[in-house]
Amino acid sequence: MKIVKGFRDILPYDTGNSDTSFAWTTTTDQLRQIMKTYNFQEIITPVIEHDSVFKTGIGEDTDIVSKEMYEFVLERDSSTVSKEKILKYCLRPEGTAPIIRSVIENSLSKIKSLNKLFYLGPMFRYERSQKGRYRMFHQIGAELIGSDEILYEVEILNLAKEILTSLNIDNYTFQINSIGNNESLKNISKAVSNFGRKNKDSIEEKDYKILNKNPLRFLDKAVHNYNFKDIPKTIDYLDKKSLKRFNDLTKILDSFNFKYSINNQLVRGIDYYNDLVFEVTSSNLGAQDALLAGGRYDSLMGKFGADESKSIGFAAGIERLILAMKSKNQASNSIDFFIVYQQEEMIEESLRLALRLREVGLSIEVDLLRRSFTKQIKSADKSLAENIIIIGKDNFNNGTIVVKNMASGIEEIVSLKNNIDFFLKKTKGTPNEKK
Ligand code: HAM
Question: What is the secondary structure of 348-394 as a DSSP string?
Fold first, then answer.
């Protein structure tokens, strides 16, 4: 049996080709904590949605919808339901459209006029798999729904930056751009269409079709797949309002000493954006160098038939964050105490002590394979135990055991009547503090 291509296991040990579960949970705990510092609240939506959520939400002409979605129908439905009524499902390729679906369906904007939501979970895209690009990957995303205040754009950008700083990631660049409001987008589309027509001979037929249907999608392709010199720059087609917004934003970012670079050809591969778009790339990654990306999407709610609500957000790929991290939280699956017995007849006493210490939250291993003392010591070494407890018959009958600290090598004879505090103090803190 083999794992599905582009999917990955997260293993307890470092085998060199996966993240460890320790790195994974430490990182995701940290990410949740950062969201809390900005008062974003978690929303958990299903991994399966109706495919219309994305067809309407992110656009039929996007690569994600036209090439990368895992779509399916239920075999049962195909034999029992008429063709028009068969429901089409898909594994979600991204988080924003489902969050907006849920906000509308659950009337969250009536409960709060400003919703600050975050999500963390798996996404699915049928892409060519390579380092940093998987068919099942995980995103942490933040969506701020209900305001077009520029200072919230600054908040969102700072939150994105805080994620990188807290995870000790450097060598990254914030690229920002404005694609403008609806008026500006019309101007840009016109300019791109003219540009495309002029260069028709150098454009592949399938891309020329996209140019006619959705000039902005073509612009994204032109930037990435062609070597044109004079591709239109969005900034030249912004109307006054959008240009002012963008200039105001950059002024505030400067005053906050927030470092960014303006990339006037950044348009993003999704249809819902307007005005601010941004992407963070890192030289610590290979070809798949985007750590996170996002932007403003004021008309997405309207596309779903609800009242419009101004919104902005971003999502980061967790696998890529872990790839780019300097210290990977790989270090320790350490345990507090490994109990070893010198004689097999002490095995039940060892187990009894293990149970007592686990009750107070200490992590304890005891080898129950009835192996020799030397073999148990070897296991204890491998297990990264901070201390070992040696239970020997003679000591035990005198009411004592030996506790050895593995880092210092110091051994102490400890009375078994000793209160639990002794064992708690031997570890680096109380169990609760450690977590
Ligand atoms: P996106 O640019 O498609 O945007 O994805 C965001 C991030 O997810 C990327 O920067 C990358 O780190 C990660 N990512 C995407 N595809 C893969 C993959 N195949 N393997 C590994 N990581 C991947 C969105 O998804 C938007 N929903 C972002 C957003 C939120 N805009 C507004 N709010």
Answer: HHHHHHHHHHHHTT--EEE--S---HHHHHHHHHHTTEEEEEEE-HH
State which residues of the chain have pLDDT below 50.
Answer: 430-435
Residue 307: helix, strand or coil by DSSP?
coil
Which CATH topology does 337-434 take? Rossmann fold (3.40.50)
- Predicted TM-score (pTM) of the model is 0.90
Q: How far is the CA of 133 from the centre of ligand 1 (A)?
A: 10
The pLDDT of residue 331? 55
Residue nearest to atom 13 of ligand 1 (CA): 317
Percent of the chain with pLDDT strictly greater than 90: 81
**58: Cβ below 6 Å to ligand 1?**
no
Reading the block at residue 103, the tokens are 């906000």
* CATH among 3.40.50.300, 3.40.50.150, 3.30.930.10, 3.40.50.2000 for 21-181+239-324: 3.30.930.10
What is the three-state SS of 112-134?
CCCEEEEEEEEEECCCCCECCEC
Which tens digit of pLDDT belongs to each residue from 305-326? 999 999 999 999 999 999 999 7
Give the number of other CB atoms < 10 A from CB of residue 380: 24
Residue 143 CA to ligand 1 center (angstroms) comes to 13
Ligand 1 and 94: CB distance under 6 A: yes
Q: For the chain, what are the domain ranges?
A: 21-181+239-324, 337-434
Residue 384: the pLDDT is 85
Predicted pLDDT at 435:
36
